[in-house]
Each structure stands twice: as structure tokens, then as C-alpha cells.
Design a protein that fits this description.
- The protein has 2 domains: 2-44 and 142-181, no CATH class; 67-117.
- The protein contains 3 helices and 4 strands.
- The chain has helices at residues 2-15, 71-89, 95-117, and strands at 22-64, 119-153, 156-162, 171-181.
- Strand 2 (119-153) and strand 3 (156-162) form a beta hairpin.
- The radius of gyration is 48 Å and the shape is rod-shaped.
Length: 183
């Protein structure tokens, strides 16, 4: 079909003596806006939000139900025992000193464990802890991208898209172009 149109057009140009001319005229005419319709599109708007969340918590208060074990006393006793064991089982020089250090460390750790076992909850303190939680809210909105005008001009009803909003009944200037050419 397209080949026959091109062929016909080529034959018309070939057989027509002289050149083919076209005339275009333009003018501004006045029309009246009959109706206005918004043209919209859906847009997802994302908004960052920081929300502060607070909560009250009961924190236990510990007390000792017995006398706490002394770390210093446990270190001294551990050092003495470690030194005696080091000297008894080894003939090498300095084994007693190494046993003293190892015994002191072991004695201190034993005292710490004993103190942890002696703790009991004697009450609770109410404390408030807060944390900022960040999130993003999404909202679908209708965004206006332009307007579709229905206009009465020169006895005709036409539709034109524009970015400018007009009110119904407004007078509007319309650019009219007429082209004439030989077929």
C-alpha cells in the first residue's frame, strides 16, 4: 500500500509541469473556554519520619545476703597456697614465685565468683529508656500535570492541552494555522 502511495506521488510530481507549492497562513482568533479538566498522574511521595519510642523498665537492685568475700584476702591466701605447691612439686628455682602469681590470680577469681553468688534482688528501680526509630512513609498522591480545555472557537468545539489553568467562560486567544497544498 505504501509503495503505491509513493509511486502515485512520484508520478504526480513527474507529470505535473512546474513546481508544487503550498501556502500556510496563521492568525490568532478568540475562543471561549467551555470546560476545564485537570490532567493528573499518580506519584508516590516518600517522606522520612523519625519517631521517638520510650518505654519504662524495671531494673533490679542487687544486695548481698552475706558478707562479701575479700579480693585482697583471697589473693594473699591463693598466693601462699600457690607458692607452697610450686615449691613442693618442683625443684627448679622460681617455681614458687610462678605458683604465687598463679595462686593470687586464682584466689581473686574465686572471690569474684563468690561475691556474684551472694547477690540477691532487693528491689527494682523504674527507669525510662527512649530510642529514635527512623522509617519512610509512602503516600500516593494525584499530581496535576496540566489541563485539558474545551473551547468554542469560530463555531467549532476543540480540545487543547495546556499547563495554564483557565476558568470556564474565559476568553482565550488561540493560534490558528491553515495550510493549503496541491494533491
Amino acid at each position: 500500500m505504501m509503495k503505491s502511495i509513493y509511486f502515485s506521488l512520484a508520478m504526480l510530481l513527474f507529470l505535473t509541469p512546474g513546481s508544487v507549492y503550498a501556502t500556510t497562513s496563521s492568525e490568532t482568533v478568540v475562543g471561549e473556554v467551555i470546560s476545564v479538566m485537570e490532567r493528573t498522574r499518580e506519584v508516590i511521595r516518600q517522606t522520612p519520619v523519625t519517631e521517638r519510642i520510650c518505654e519504662d523498665r524495671d531494673v533490679p537492685v542487687y544486695g548481698n545476703n552475706e558478707q562479701p568475700a575479700s579480693e585482697l584476702g583471697s589473693m594473699i591466701i591463693g598466693g601462699i597456697i600457690g607458692s607452697a605447691i610450686g615449691n613442693k612439686f618442683s625443684d627448679s628455682e622460681g617455681a614458687g614465685a610462678a605458683g604465687t602469681v598463679a595462686g593470687a590470680i586464682l584466689g581473686k577469681e574465686t572471690a569474684n565468683q563468690a561475691n556474684e553468688k551472694n547477690k540477691e534482688i532487693v528491689g527494682y528501680n523504674r527507669t525510662r529508656s527512649c530510642e529514635d526509630i527512623r522509617s519512610v512513609t509512602q503516600q500516593t498522591i494525584q499530581e496535576v500535570i496540566g489541563y485539558r480545555l474545551t473551547i468554542s472557537v469560530e463555531g467549532k468545539i476543540i480540545d487543547i492541552n495546556t499547563e495554564t489553568k483557565y476558568l470556564p467562560g474565559s476568553q482565550i486567544s488561540v493560534f490558528k494555522t491553515i495550510s493549503y497544498s496541491v494533491q
